[in-house]
Amino acid sequence: MNTINQEPSEREQVEALLPWHAAGTLSRREAERVERALAGDRELARQFELVREELYETIHLNESLGTPSTRAVQKLFAAIEAEGPRAPKRRSFDLAGRLATFLSRFAPRTLAYVAAAGGLAIVVQGAMLTKWAVKEQTANEFTLASQSSSEGPSIMVRFAPGATVSDITSFLAAYKAQLIARPEPGNFYQIRISGLKSADEIATIVGKIQRESKVVDFVAVRE
Amino acid sequence: MQATSDEALIARIASGDRLAMQVLFARHHVRIYRFVLRLVRDQWKAEDLISEVFLDVWRQADRFEGRSTVSTWLLAIARFKALSALRRKPEEGLDEDAALEIEDLADNPEVTLEKKDRSAVIRKCLMGLSAEHREIIDLVYYHEKSVEEVAKIVGIPENTVKTRMFYARKKLAEMLKAAGLEQE
Protein backbone atom coordinates (compact mmCIF):
# COMPACT_ATOMS: atom_id res chain seq x y z
CA MET A 1 0.00 0.00 0.00
CA ASN A 2 2.97 2.28 0.45
CA THR A 3 3.98 2.49 -3.17
CA ILE A 4 2.08 2.78 -6.35
CA ASN A 5 4.25 0.83 -8.71
CA GLN A 6 5.22 -1.96 -6.39
CA GLU A 7 3.00 -4.94 -5.80
CA PRO A 8 1.84 -4.94 -2.18
CA SER A 9 3.26 -7.68 -0.03
CA GLU A 10 1.02 -10.44 1.26
CA ARG A 11 1.01 -8.78 4.67
CA GLU A 12 0.01 -5.41 3.19
CA GLN A 13 -2.75 -7.04 1.20
CA VAL A 14 -4.08 -8.74 4.32
CA GLU A 15 -3.82 -5.55 6.33
CA ALA A 16 -5.90 -3.78 3.69
CA LEU A 17 -8.62 -6.38 4.16
CA LEU A 18 -8.84 -6.01 7.95
CA PRO A 19 -11.72 -3.48 7.89
CA TRP A 20 -13.86 -5.83 5.83
CA HIS A 21 -12.86 -8.78 7.97
CA ALA A 22 -13.98 -6.88 11.06
CA ALA A 23 -17.27 -6.05 9.37
CA GLY A 24 -17.74 -9.66 8.28
CA THR A 25 -18.07 -8.86 4.61
CA LEU A 26 -15.20 -10.88 3.19
CA SER A 27 -15.70 -14.07 1.27
CA ARG A 28 -15.01 -17.23 3.23
CA ARG A 29 -11.76 -17.76 1.36
CA GLU A 30 -10.50 -14.27 2.08
CA ALA A 31 -11.65 -14.44 5.69
CA GLU A 32 -9.66 -17.65 6.17
CA ARG A 33 -6.66 -15.98 4.57
CA VAL A 34 -6.89 -13.12 7.05
CA GLU A 35 -7.42 -15.47 9.98
CA ARG A 36 -4.30 -17.41 9.07
CA ALA A 37 -2.27 -14.22 8.90
CA LEU A 38 -3.66 -12.96 12.20
CA ALA A 39 -2.78 -16.19 13.94
CA GLY A 40 0.91 -15.80 13.15
CA ASP A 41 1.43 -12.06 13.30
CA ARG A 42 1.01 -10.24 16.61
CA GLU A 43 1.43 -6.80 15.06
CA LEU A 44 -1.29 -7.57 12.56
CA ALA A 45 -3.50 -8.83 15.38
CA ARG A 46 -2.92 -5.51 17.17
CA GLN A 47 -3.92 -3.67 14.01
CA PHE A 48 -7.07 -5.74 13.87
CA GLU A 49 -8.01 -4.72 17.40
CA LEU A 50 -7.68 -1.08 16.35
CA VAL A 51 -9.87 -1.74 13.33
CA ARG A 52 -12.49 -3.31 15.56
CA GLU A 53 -12.39 -0.27 17.80
CA GLU A 54 -12.87 2.02 14.78
CA LEU A 55 -15.75 -0.12 13.61
CA TYR A 56 -17.45 0.02 17.00
CA GLU A 57 -17.09 3.78 17.25
CA THR A 58 -18.27 4.31 13.67
CA ILE A 59 -21.43 2.36 14.42
CA HIS A 60 -21.87 4.28 17.66
CA LEU A 61 -21.44 7.57 15.83
CA ASN A 62 -23.95 6.69 13.12
CA GLU A 63 -26.49 5.36 15.58
CA SER A 64 -26.25 8.64 17.46
CA LEU A 65 -27.40 10.55 14.38
CA GLY A 66 -31.02 9.85 15.16
CA THR A 67 -33.79 9.27 12.70
CA PRO A 68 -35.56 11.47 10.19
CA SER A 69 -38.82 13.11 11.12
CA THR A 70 -42.11 11.97 9.64
CA ARG A 71 -41.80 14.85 7.22
CA ALA A 72 -39.70 12.66 4.94
CA VAL A 73 -42.27 9.90 4.62
CA GLN A 74 -45.12 12.37 4.31
CA LYS A 75 -43.36 14.20 1.53
CA LEU A 76 -42.58 10.97 -0.27
CA PHE A 77 -46.09 9.58 -0.25
CA ALA A 78 -47.61 12.94 -1.07
CA ALA A 79 -45.43 12.93 -4.19
CA ILE A 80 -46.44 9.37 -5.01
CA GLU A 81 -50.09 10.25 -4.46
CA ALA A 82 -49.76 13.25 -6.73
CA GLU A 83 -48.51 11.02 -9.51
CA GLY A 84 -51.78 9.12 -9.44
CA PRO A 85 -52.36 5.44 -9.99
CA ARG A 86 -49.76 3.80 -12.11
CA ALA A 87 -51.00 2.11 -15.22
CA PRO A 88 -49.98 -1.51 -15.01
CA LYS A 89 -47.14 -2.10 -17.36
CA ARG A 90 -47.65 -4.72 -19.99
CA ARG A 91 -45.37 -7.44 -18.91
CA SER A 92 -44.68 -8.34 -22.51
CA PHE A 93 -42.70 -5.13 -22.76
CA ASP A 94 -40.80 -5.67 -19.53
CA LEU A 95 -38.73 -8.54 -20.74
CA ALA A 96 -35.83 -8.26 -18.33
CA GLY A 97 -38.02 -7.81 -15.28
CA ARG A 98 -40.44 -10.58 -16.01
CA LEU A 99 -37.70 -12.99 -16.92
CA ALA A 100 -35.84 -12.19 -13.75
CA THR A 101 -39.01 -12.94 -11.80
CA PHE A 102 -39.69 -16.03 -13.82
CA LEU A 103 -36.19 -17.42 -13.52
CA SER A 104 -36.04 -16.61 -9.85
CA ARG A 105 -39.09 -18.78 -9.29
CA PHE A 106 -37.32 -21.69 -10.87
CA ALA A 107 -33.98 -20.89 -9.35
CA PRO A 108 -33.72 -23.52 -6.61
CA ARG A 109 -34.74 -26.38 -8.81
CA THR A 110 -33.20 -25.12 -11.98
CA LEU A 111 -29.87 -24.10 -10.60
CA ALA A 112 -29.50 -27.30 -8.65
CA TYR A 113 -30.37 -29.28 -11.72
CA VAL A 114 -27.98 -27.37 -13.92
CA ALA A 115 -25.21 -27.72 -11.39
CA ALA A 116 -25.80 -31.45 -11.15
CA ALA A 117 -25.92 -31.81 -14.87
CA GLY A 118 -22.90 -29.63 -15.41
CA GLY A 119 -20.52 -32.47 -15.97
CA LEU A 120 -22.71 -34.41 -18.32
CA ALA A 121 -22.34 -34.44 -22.05
CA ILE A 122 -24.87 -32.24 -23.77
CA VAL A 123 -27.31 -34.16 -25.87
CA VAL A 124 -30.39 -32.77 -27.49
CA GLN A 125 -33.09 -35.33 -27.43
CA GLY A 126 -35.86 -35.18 -29.99
CA ALA A 127 -38.23 -36.80 -27.58
CA MET A 128 -37.74 -33.98 -25.16
CA LEU A 129 -38.80 -31.50 -27.76
CA THR A 130 -42.07 -33.25 -28.41
CA LYS A 131 -43.17 -32.36 -24.90
CA TRP A 132 -43.14 -28.79 -25.87
CA ALA A 133 -46.58 -27.30 -25.56
CA VAL A 134 -46.41 -23.62 -25.21
CA LYS A 135 -50.10 -22.92 -25.07
CA GLU A 136 -50.52 -25.00 -21.97
CA GLN A 137 -48.29 -22.75 -19.98
CA THR A 138 -49.64 -21.66 -16.64
CA ALA A 139 -46.56 -20.03 -15.29
CA ASN A 140 -48.25 -18.07 -12.54
CA GLU A 141 -48.05 -14.37 -13.33
CA PHE A 142 -45.60 -14.93 -16.08
CA THR A 143 -47.05 -15.35 -19.50
CA LEU A 144 -44.76 -16.80 -22.05
CA ALA A 145 -44.74 -15.49 -25.55
CA SER A 146 -46.95 -17.47 -27.84
CA GLN A 147 -45.15 -19.44 -30.43
CA SER A 148 -45.61 -18.93 -34.07
CA SER A 149 -43.37 -20.30 -36.72
CA SER A 150 -43.94 -17.17 -38.76
CA GLU A 151 -42.05 -15.15 -36.17
CA GLY A 152 -38.79 -16.97 -36.66
CA PRO A 153 -37.32 -20.26 -35.59
CA SER A 154 -37.05 -21.29 -31.98
CA ILE A 155 -33.61 -21.80 -30.59
CA MET A 156 -32.83 -24.12 -27.72
CA VAL A 157 -30.33 -22.96 -25.17
CA ARG A 158 -29.08 -24.14 -21.85
CA PHE A 159 -27.67 -21.59 -19.50
CA ALA A 160 -24.25 -22.15 -17.99
CA PRO A 161 -24.25 -23.23 -14.33
CA GLY A 162 -22.35 -20.10 -13.36
CA ALA A 163 -24.71 -17.71 -15.14
CA THR A 164 -26.65 -15.48 -12.80
CA VAL A 165 -30.20 -14.35 -13.38
CA SER A 166 -28.79 -10.96 -14.20
CA ASP A 167 -26.46 -12.50 -16.80
CA ILE A 168 -29.37 -14.37 -18.36
CA THR A 169 -31.70 -11.41 -18.50
CA SER A 170 -28.93 -9.27 -19.97
CA PHE A 171 -28.22 -11.93 -22.55
CA LEU A 172 -31.88 -12.16 -23.56
CA ALA A 173 -32.21 -8.41 -23.72
CA ALA A 174 -29.05 -8.09 -25.81
CA TYR A 175 -30.34 -10.56 -28.36
CA LYS A 176 -33.91 -9.25 -28.17
CA ALA A 177 -34.87 -12.81 -27.37
CA GLN A 178 -38.15 -14.03 -25.95
CA LEU A 179 -38.58 -17.07 -23.81
CA ILE A 180 -41.31 -19.13 -25.44
CA ALA A 181 -41.56 -22.21 -23.28
CA ARG A 182 -40.95 -23.35 -19.77
CA PRO A 183 -37.69 -25.18 -19.19
CA GLU A 184 -37.53 -28.72 -20.47
CA PRO A 185 -35.83 -31.50 -18.55
CA GLY A 186 -32.14 -30.86 -18.69
CA ASN A 187 -32.85 -27.16 -18.27
CA PHE A 188 -33.16 -26.48 -21.93
CA TYR A 189 -35.03 -23.32 -22.74
CA GLN A 190 -36.57 -22.33 -26.02
CA ILE A 191 -36.11 -18.79 -27.09
CA ARG A 192 -37.14 -16.90 -30.16
CA ILE A 193 -35.19 -14.05 -31.67
CA SER A 194 -37.33 -11.82 -33.74
CA GLY A 195 -36.30 -10.79 -37.20
CA LEU A 196 -34.42 -13.93 -38.10
CA LYS A 197 -35.40 -15.08 -41.55
CA SER A 198 -32.63 -16.53 -43.63
CA ALA A 199 -30.56 -19.55 -42.79
CA ASP A 200 -27.46 -17.37 -42.84
CA GLU A 201 -28.89 -14.99 -40.25
CA ILE A 202 -29.83 -17.88 -38.03
CA ALA A 203 -26.41 -19.50 -38.36
CA THR A 204 -24.72 -16.18 -37.57
CA ILE A 205 -26.76 -15.69 -34.42
CA VAL A 206 -26.24 -19.26 -33.26
CA GLY A 207 -22.51 -18.87 -33.82
CA LYS A 208 -22.56 -15.66 -31.81
CA ILE A 209 -24.47 -17.29 -28.97
CA GLN A 210 -22.02 -20.18 -28.95
CA ARG A 211 -19.34 -17.69 -28.03
CA GLU A 212 -21.36 -16.55 -25.01
CA SER A 213 -19.90 -19.45 -23.04
CA LYS A 214 -20.15 -17.62 -19.73
CA VAL A 215 -23.93 -17.49 -20.05
CA VAL A 216 -24.90 -20.27 -22.45
CA ASP A 217 -23.30 -23.69 -22.57
CA PHE A 218 -25.48 -25.12 -25.29
CA VAL A 219 -27.33 -23.72 -28.28
CA ALA A 220 -29.11 -25.35 -31.18
CA VAL A 221 -31.79 -24.45 -33.65
CA ARG A 222 -34.97 -26.41 -33.23
CA GLU A 223 -35.91 -27.95 -36.52
CA MET B 1 -41.92 -16.57 8.67
CA GLN B 2 -39.49 -15.19 6.16
CA ALA B 3 -39.64 -11.50 5.39
CA THR B 4 -40.25 -10.48 1.83
CA SER B 5 -36.93 -9.93 0.14
CA ASP B 6 -35.95 -6.47 -1.00
CA GLU B 7 -35.86 -7.73 -4.57
CA ALA B 8 -39.43 -9.00 -4.30
CA LEU B 9 -40.50 -5.65 -2.89
CA ILE B 10 -38.89 -3.86 -5.81
CA ALA B 11 -40.78 -6.10 -8.22
CA ARG B 12 -44.04 -5.23 -6.46
CA ILE B 13 -43.17 -1.55 -6.43
CA ALA B 14 -42.57 -1.74 -10.16
CA SER B 15 -46.16 -2.82 -10.55
CA GLY B 16 -47.40 0.09 -8.46
CA ASP B 17 -47.75 -1.56 -5.04
CA ARG B 18 -47.67 1.27 -2.48
CA LEU B 19 -47.66 -1.06 0.48
CA ALA B 20 -44.44 -2.59 -0.82
CA MET B 21 -43.09 0.93 -1.08
CA GLN B 22 -43.94 1.56 2.56
CA VAL B 23 -42.24 -1.65 3.63
CA LEU B 24 -39.10 -0.85 1.67
CA PHE B 25 -39.04 2.67 3.06
CA ALA B 26 -39.49 1.46 6.62
CA ARG B 27 -36.72 -1.06 6.14
CA HIS B 28 -34.08 1.26 4.71
CA HIS B 29 -34.85 4.91 5.28
CA VAL B 30 -32.99 5.38 8.55
CA ARG B 31 -29.70 4.06 7.23
CA ILE B 32 -30.06 5.98 3.99
CA TYR B 33 -30.86 9.10 5.98
CA ARG B 34 -27.76 8.69 8.12
CA PHE B 35 -25.59 8.10 5.07
CA VAL B 36 -26.92 11.25 3.43
CA LEU B 37 -26.76 13.26 6.62
CA ARG B 38 -23.10 12.41 7.06
CA LEU B 39 -22.49 13.81 3.59
CA VAL B 40 -24.66 16.92 3.56
CA ARG B 41 -24.58 17.67 7.31
CA ASP B 42 -28.04 19.21 7.22
CA GLN B 43 -30.98 17.36 8.73
CA TRP B 44 -33.60 19.21 6.72
CA LYS B 45 -31.78 18.66 3.46
CA ALA B 46 -31.11 15.03 4.33
CA GLU B 47 -34.83 14.44 4.89
CA ASP B 48 -35.66 16.04 1.55
CA LEU B 49 -33.04 13.93 -0.15
CA ILE B 50 -34.27 10.61 1.20
CA SER B 51 -37.75 11.48 -0.04
CA GLU B 52 -36.21 12.05 -3.45
CA VAL B 53 -34.23 8.82 -3.25
CA PHE B 54 -37.30 6.72 -2.57
CA LEU B 55 -39.36 8.64 -5.11
CA ASP B 56 -36.73 7.63 -7.67
CA VAL B 57 -37.13 4.04 -6.51
CA TRP B 58 -40.90 4.32 -7.01
CA ARG B 59 -40.42 5.66 -10.52
CA GLN B 60 -37.55 3.45 -11.59
CA ALA B 61 -38.18 0.16 -9.84
CA ASP B 62 -38.83 -1.55 -13.15
CA ARG B 63 -35.30 -0.68 -14.19
CA PHE B 64 -33.69 -2.42 -11.22
CA GLU B 65 -31.68 -5.23 -12.75
CA GLY B 66 -30.51 -7.02 -9.65
CA ARG B 67 -26.86 -6.46 -10.45
CA SER B 68 -26.38 -5.34 -6.87
CA THR B 69 -28.35 -5.61 -3.67
CA VAL B 70 -31.22 -3.19 -3.20
CA SER B 71 -29.45 -1.47 -0.31
CA THR B 72 -26.39 -0.91 -2.50
CA TRP B 73 -28.63 0.52 -5.21
CA LEU B 74 -30.29 2.83 -2.68
CA LEU B 75 -26.95 4.03 -1.34
CA ALA B 76 -25.71 4.73 -4.86
CA ILE B 77 -28.81 6.81 -5.63
CA ALA B 78 -28.50 8.57 -2.28
CA ARG B 79 -24.87 9.37 -2.86
CA PHE B 80 -25.60 10.79 -6.29
CA LYS B 81 -28.34 12.99 -4.89
CA ALA B 82 -26.27 14.11 -1.93
CA LEU B 83 -23.38 15.08 -4.16
CA SER B 84 -25.74 16.83 -6.55
CA ALA B 85 -27.15 18.71 -3.61
CA LEU B 86 -23.65 19.74 -2.71
CA ARG B 87 -23.34 20.96 -6.30
CA ARG B 88 -20.71 18.44 -7.17
CA LYS B 89 -20.52 15.92 -9.89
CA PRO B 90 -20.22 12.41 -8.43
CA GLU B 91 -17.40 11.40 -10.76
CA GLU B 92 -15.31 14.18 -9.31
CA GLY B 93 -15.55 12.66 -5.89
CA LEU B 94 -15.15 14.79 -2.86
CA ASP B 95 -12.26 17.13 -2.71
CA GLU B 96 -10.62 16.77 0.64
CA ASP B 97 -9.76 20.40 1.15
CA ALA B 98 -13.21 21.56 0.15
CA ALA B 99 -14.77 18.89 2.30
CA LEU B 100 -12.84 20.08 5.30
CA GLU B 101 -14.45 23.45 4.85
CA ILE B 102 -17.78 21.99 5.74
CA GLU B 103 -16.49 20.25 8.83
CA ASP B 104 -18.25 21.19 11.97
CA LEU B 105 -15.84 20.42 14.74
CA ALA B 106 -17.06 22.14 17.84
CA ASP B 107 -13.63 21.97 19.32
CA ASN B 108 -10.35 20.51 18.27
CA PRO B 109 -9.16 17.03 19.21
CA GLU B 110 -6.80 18.38 21.85
CA VAL B 111 -9.67 19.94 23.72
CA THR B 112 -11.68 16.78 23.46
CA LEU B 113 -8.84 14.77 24.86
CA GLU B 114 -9.22 16.65 28.09
CA LYS B 115 -12.40 14.74 28.55
CA LYS B 116 -10.29 11.63 28.97
CA ASP B 117 -12.80 9.77 26.96
CA ARG B 118 -11.15 7.58 24.37
CA SER B 119 -14.40 6.75 22.62
CA ALA B 120 -15.39 10.37 22.38
CA VAL B 121 -12.01 11.28 20.90
CA ILE B 122 -12.24 8.56 18.28
CA ARG B 123 -15.74 9.64 17.31
CA LYS B 124 -14.64 13.23 17.16
CA CYS B 125 -11.79 12.31 14.86
CA LEU B 126 -14.13 10.21 12.73
CA MET B 127 -16.27 13.30 12.31
CA GLY B 128 -13.21 15.32 11.46
CA LEU B 129 -12.24 13.16 8.52
CA SER B 130 -12.76 14.51 5.04
CA ALA B 131 -16.12 13.70 3.47
CA GLU B 132 -14.43 11.26 1.13
CA HIS B 133 -12.85 9.36 4.00
CA ARG B 134 -15.99 9.54 6.16
CA GLU B 135 -17.96 8.13 3.31
CA ILE B 136 -15.80 5.07 2.80
CA ILE B 137 -15.48 4.35 6.51
CA ASP B 138 -19.24 4.57 6.93
CA LEU B 139 -19.88 2.32 3.95
CA VAL B 140 -17.49 -0.34 5.20
CA TYR B 141 -18.10 -0.24 8.92
CA TYR B 142 -21.68 0.93 9.32
CA HIS B 143 -23.37 -0.07 6.09
CA GLU B 144 -21.40 -3.33 5.94
CA LYS B 145 -20.58 -3.05 2.28
CA SER B 146 -18.04 -5.32 0.64
CA VAL B 147 -15.18 -4.04 -1.47
CA GLU B 148 -17.18 -4.77 -4.60
CA GLU B 149 -20.29 -3.02 -3.29
CA VAL B 150 -18.38 0.07 -2.22
CA ALA B 151 -16.83 0.17 -5.69
CA LYS B 152 -20.31 0.17 -7.22
CA ILE B 153 -21.68 2.82 -4.89
CA VAL B 154 -18.75 5.20 -5.17
CA GLY B 155 -17.97 4.39 -8.78
CA ILE B 156 -14.30 3.58 -8.36
CA PRO B 157 -12.21 0.43 -8.97
CA GLU B 158 -12.02 -2.15 -6.20
CA ASN B 159 -8.30 -1.58 -5.67
CA THR B 160 -9.00 2.11 -5.24
CA VAL B 161 -11.58 1.24 -2.60
CA LYS B 162 -8.93 -0.61 -0.61
CA THR B 163 -6.41 2.17 -1.09
CA ARG B 164 -8.90 4.84 -0.08
CA MET B 165 -9.86 2.90 3.03
CA PHE B 166 -6.19 2.47 3.85
CA TYR B 167 -5.58 6.21 3.65
CA ALA B 168 -8.77 7.00 5.55
CA ARG B 169 -7.51 4.83 8.39
CA LYS B 170 -4.06 6.33 8.15
CA LYS B 171 -5.52 9.82 8.39
CA LEU B 172 -7.61 8.77 11.34
CA ALA B 173 -4.52 7.38 13.08
CA GLU B 174 -2.71 10.69 12.52
CA MET B 175 -5.61 12.62 13.96
CA LEU B 176 -5.77 10.36 16.98
CA LYS B 177 -2.08 10.77 17.51
CA ALA B 178 -2.40 14.53 17.24
CA ALA B 179 -5.15 14.33 19.82
CA GLY B 180 -2.78 12.53 22.14
CA LEU B 181 -4.29 9.13 21.66
CA GLU B 182 -1.52 6.73 20.88
CA GLN B 183 -2.78 3.57 19.29
CA GLU B 184 -1.07 0.92 21.34
How would you portray this structure in words?
The complex is a heterodimer of chains A (223) and B (184). Chain A has 223 residues and is an alpha+beta fold. Chain A is 50% helix and 9% strand. Chain A has two domains: 10-63; 91-221, no CATH class. Chain A has eight helices and four strands, in the order ααααααβαββαβ. The radius of gyration of chain A is 26 Å and the shape is flat. Chain B folds into two domains: 1-92, Rna Polymerase Sigma Factor, Chain: A (Orthogonal Bundle), CATH 1.10.1740.10; 94-184, Arc Repressor Mutant, subunit A. Chain B has helices at 6-14, 18-40, 43-60, 70-85, 96-101, 109-113, 118-128, 131-142, 147-154, 158-178. The chains are: A alpha+beta (223), B mainly alpha (184). The interface between A and B is large, with 50 and 52 residues.
Number of helices of chain A: 8
Strand count of chain B: 0
* Largest beta-sheet details of chain B: none
* Helix-residue proportion of chain A: 40-55%
Q: Mean pLDDT across all residues of chain A, rounded?
A: 72
Count of helical regions of chain B: 10
> What's the SSE pattern of chain A?
HHHHHHEHEEHE
| Proportion of beta-strand residues of chain B | under 5%
Query: Could you say which structural class the secondary elements and strand pairing of chain B correspond to?
Result: mainly alpha
Poorly predicted runs of chain B are 89-106
Kindly give the count of domains of chain A: 2
Percentage of β-strand residues of chain A: 5-15%
User: Gyration radius of chain B, to the nearest Å?
Assistant: 18 Å
Task: Give the strand tally of chain A.
Answer: 4
**Low-confidence runs of chain A:** 90-94, 105-149
